[in-house]
Write a structure and sequence with these properties.
Elements: H1 2-25, E1 57-60, E2 63-75, E3 78-86, E4 93-100, E5 103-111, E6 123-125, E7 128-144, E8 151-160, E9 166-172, E10 180-187, E11 193-195
Length: 202
């Protein structure tokens, strides 16, 4: 009986030593650092596809708009984006993000189904005269809710007023479809606050 108790004691001692050594050698978890304010001055996220997408919030004029869907356009090496925003009491609006010769251009767009215009020549809308600045064809892909096919080709003709204070856009989503007309208002980054979209797949 004494021998049995001695063996048990030795086994317990060995187990205790192993437990001590294991606890000593186990990597220590680092204490989490303090959480940071994501909206700290000077650290607001830039406008771009990584921040804007379905689920992002764009705050403007005291109204928070949620991004329902996003369209990525490509024409050769050039990319630009349009995001469908919904919020407030009005109709959903489109928000475009484009980099033109190193300058970021942001605009809010309003559909104008009441206008019976076609591309070509100058146009006057609501007392503002617009001149054609660019036309072309682009490929596009969509995510979220946009009302468009998942991908495809489209044609566009862009107009601007003197000084680019206001924009006019014609978009055609198939060769035989009517042109969709929108008026755009240029925005500055300082007028908007963006709460980034959750990562894709989260």
């Amino acid at each position: 009986m004494g021998t049995f108790l001695m063996v048990i004691g030795i086994l317990l001692l060995v187990a205790a030593v192993f437990a001590f050594v294991f606890a000593f050698l186990r990597p220590r978890k680092k204490a989490p650092g303090p959480r940071q304010d994501p909206l700290k001055a000077g650290e607001m996220p830039v406008f771009g596809p990584k921040q804007l997408g379905p689920g992002a919030i764009v705050s403007f004029g005291g109204v928070d708009y949620v991004v329902r869907g996003s369209v990525t356009y490509s024409e050769g090496p050039f990319l630009w984006w349009e995001h469908l925003l919904e919020g407030g009491q009005g109709e959903p609006i489109w928000f475009s993000v484009e980099e033109d010769e190193g300058r970021l251009e942001l605009a809010f767009w309003t559909k104008r189904a009441d206008l019976a215009l076609t591309p070509g020549g100058a146009h006057t809308v609501d007392g503002v005269q617009y001149y054609e600045v660019e036309r072309g064809q682009a490929s596009y892909t969509c995510e979220g809710t946009t009302g468009l096919p998942a991908s495809g080709q489209m044609s566009f003709v862009d107009y601007a007023s003197d000084g680019r204070a206001a924009l006019l856009s014609f978009e055609q989503w198939s060769p035989n479809s009517p042109w969709e007309i929108s008026l755009g208002r240029i925005m500055s980054p300082g007028e908007l606050t963006v709460y980034p979209a959750p990562p894709a797949g989260s």
